[in-house]
Amino acid sequence: MGTPANRPESAAPGPHAGLFEPLQVGGLRLPNRLAVAPMTRVSATAHGHATAQMADYYAAFAAGGFGLVITEGIYTDQAHAQGYLYQPGLADDAQREAWRPVVERVQAQGGRIVAQLMHAGALSQGNPYRSTNKAPSAVMPAGQQMTFYRGAGPYPMPEPMTRDDIARAVEGFAQAARRAQAAGFDGVEIHGANGYLLDQFLTAHTNLRDDDYGGSLDNRLRLTVEVIQAVRPSTTGRFAVGVRVSQGKVNDFTHKWQGGANEAARIFGTLGRQPIDYLHTTEFEAWRPAFGEDGPSLAALARGHVAVPVLANGSLHDPAQAAGMLARQEADFVSLGRGALTHADWPDRLRAGARLEAFDRGLLAPIADLANAARRRAAHQAGCREA
What we know:
Layout: E1 23-25, E2 28-30, E3 34-36, H1 52-63, E4 68-75, H2 93-108, E5 112-118, E6 134-135, E7 159-160, H3 163-183, E8 187-191, H4 197-202, H5 217-231, E9 240-246, H6 260-272, E10 278-282, H7 298-303, E11 310-313, H8 319-327, E12 333-336, H9 338-342, H10 346-352, H11 370-386
Parallel strand pairs: 3-4, 3-12, 4-5, 5-8, 6-7, 8-9, 9-10, 10-11, 11-12
Antiparallel strand pairs: 1-2
Helix pairs in contact: 1-2, 2-3, 3-5, 5-6
């Protein structure tokens, strides 16, 4: 299989050809429509520094043909942003410098890399900087902490954020974006999905505020808008800025927006008026109707209300489903999580007609870190040799 340097920018025969067409995302030209989804790997140092092992991990995706790599969620400040122990950060200059070799390795393989910026809010289950969690309101999160990210038991009751807390969180996103550009990243993705802080503000039952950050949908979207408007001028040139949104959450998979398609139209309309370069939607199965038994998918709803490219995520490791999203014009590109974890060279395998194996959940258990995945793969390879 060819290296990124000599791999054709487009042209893949058969029904999956659309996945290999180039795409312009703001000032960023992608060689194909295949991205690596952000996946928490809790493999940084205790101080949030990216490691050589992480550089190997991310570079493998670019070497395997993915046009865009989106990092795991990176915490943005040394207050309440961190969600997990051994999560990487962009909250100080030492963390910025630790990312530099990761970025260089990905770009040397012909890939582009975007840093996902994340504030965990009420869902923090491992933060050495603070002993309390902050959220829009004092609402106990649903569900239990995730054991494969070193959590245990229920989430703690968070403290409601003050105006100063909110201002510091916004500034944390802006400073992290500035550090990301200085480290050489091609862009950032603002994490507004999956139940983390920005999504907590958007969600009515976790946001009980009676100020201008709560109540109406416009007010609940206010923090996300303020973060976007702080991040964009913190960066320069052709640096890409994206936003990720979802209905479901890591602690509430089945959540749906109460207002259905009308609420989705208002959310996407608001985000579409912001200075972003792409919108990333994620559902469990991206092609399914967003509401009820029929109707458009969440990605399709987004695409109908924004002028920027829409990135679809959710069980798209099936090439037919991935290509179908593009062919039906429901999305402009797709991101893979389980497929990328199974095969870092998923795009090159698809080009070559090689077998795509099923996802092995043992890669994420008991801890979803890179060391566990390496042990699992080594054991599998040893078993294959003995068979």
